[in-house]
């Protein structure tokens, strides 16, 4: 069951989700528990990250008890590469907050043993008791994380081949499609579905069709976001343009 929440603009959506995260951190830290967040990159979560930074700076929200797991990373790109997701997260979120470095987890696109890096990633998520709240964007192919079609409901963190549509969509960041990696590491669909709460964000008309498919099509590997219909606590945060085809 997917709940939809319509927001007048990106900023209002960001404020609502940031408030939810802040409440979760406050409740859990009062009883001495960490908060485990699953995080996404891309342009969609940027207003949310700006709002979390504002809450930290202006309202003294501490992230010292937060543990993070990012969804994905490009194969072959490391922390110093400006298009790596590690670099993106440092620039747009982590360096502005007080999250202990040891609490930050991102798949290692430079690992010499990618398969082991993926099984270790799953083990690290399990070791902290699972993800409390997962932030997602959505790709026009229906991908969540980098689970491109076809991605089965039982997929786990693994190496994936990126769809050409996704490479083209992301080429703006690289300047040239030839520079966009062909592979990536991503949490699997099953990994994402195990998060206790899922908040998917989508803005703009370019996402309207895939949002319709994710909510209305029968769940299948052809549109991996449809698997979210099986999640008991999943909300899609949309602006009017992204909700247009519903
Ligand atoms: C990013 C990720 C992707 C993006 C999706 C949308 O970590 O996992 O699924 O969320 O490609 O990207 P944007 O937000 O740039 O439209």
Bound molecules: fructose -6-phosphate
The CATH architecture assignment turns out to be: 3-Layer(aba) Sandwich
Overall geometry: globular
Q: Number of domains in the coordinates? A: 1
Find the count of extended strands (DSSP E, 2+ residues). Answer: 10
Helix-strand sequence = EHEHEEHEHEEHEHEHE
Beta-strand portion reads: 15-25%
Spatial gap, N to C terminus: 15 Å
Q: What is the CATH C level class, in words?
A: Alpha Beta
What strand order characterises the main sheet?
1-10-9-6-2-3-5
Task: Set out the fold topology.
Elements: E1 2-6, H1 10-30, E2 35-39, H2 46-59, E3 66-70, E4 72-74, H3 85-92, E5 104-105, H4 114-127, E6 133-136, E7 158-161, H5 164-174, E8 183-186, H6 189-193, E9 197-202, H7 208-216, E10 234-238
Helix pairs in contact: 1-2
This protein binds fructose -6-phosphate (F6R).
Write a brief structural summary.
The protein has 246 residues and is α/β, with parallel strands linked by helices.
Features of this protein?
246 residues, alpha/beta, Rossmann fold, 7-stranded parallel β-sheet, 3-stranded antiparallel β-sheet, 33% helix, binds fructose -6-phosphate
Describe the structure.
By secondary structure, this protein is an alpha/beta fold. The protein has one domain (2-238): Rossmann fold (3-Layer(aba) Sandwich), CATH 3.40.50.1360. The chain is built from seven helices and ten strands. It has helices spanning 10-30, 46-59, 85-92, 114-127, 164-174, 189-193, 208-216, and strands at residues 2-6, 35-39, 66-70, 72-74, 104-105, 133-136, 158-161, 183-186, 197-202, 234-238. The strands form two sheets. It has a seven-stranded parallel beta sheet with strand order 1-10-9-6-2-3-5, sandwiched between helices. Strands 4-8-7 form a three-stranded antiparallel beta sheet. Bound molecules: fructose -6-phosphate. Fructose -6-phosphate (F6R) binds at residues 40-44, 71-72, 137-139, 143-146.
């Amino acid at each position: 069951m997917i709940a939809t929440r319509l927001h007048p603009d990106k900023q209002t959506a960001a404020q609502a989700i940031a408030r939810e995260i802040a409440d979760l951190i406050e409740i859990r830290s009062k009883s001495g528990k960490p908060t485990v967040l699953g995080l996404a990159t891309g342009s969609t979560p940027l207003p949310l990250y700006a709002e979390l930074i504002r809450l930290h700076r202006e309202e003294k929200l501490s992230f010292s008890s937060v543990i993070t797991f990012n969804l994905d990373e490009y194969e072959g790109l490391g922390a110093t590469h400006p298009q790596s997701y590690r670099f993106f997260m440092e620039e747009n979120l982590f360096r502005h907050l007080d999250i202990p470095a040891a609490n930050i987890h991102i798949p290692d696109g430079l690992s010499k043993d990618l398969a082991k890096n993926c099984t270790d990633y799953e083990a690290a998520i399990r070791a902290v008791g699972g993800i409390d709240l997962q932030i997602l964007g959505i790709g026009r192919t229906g991908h969540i994380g980098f689970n491109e079609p076809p991605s089965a409901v039982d997929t786990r963190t693994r190496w994936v081949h990126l769809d050409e549509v996704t490479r083209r969509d992301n080429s703006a960041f690289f300047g040239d499609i030839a520079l966009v990696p062909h592979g990536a590491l991503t949490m699997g669909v099953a990994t994402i579905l195990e998060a206790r709460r899922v908040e998917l964000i989508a803005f703009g008309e370019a996402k309207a069709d895939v949002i319709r498919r994710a909510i209305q099509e029968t769940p299948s590997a052809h549109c991996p976001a449809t698997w979210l219909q099986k999640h008991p606590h999943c909300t899609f945060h949309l602006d009017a343009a992204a909700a247009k085809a519903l």
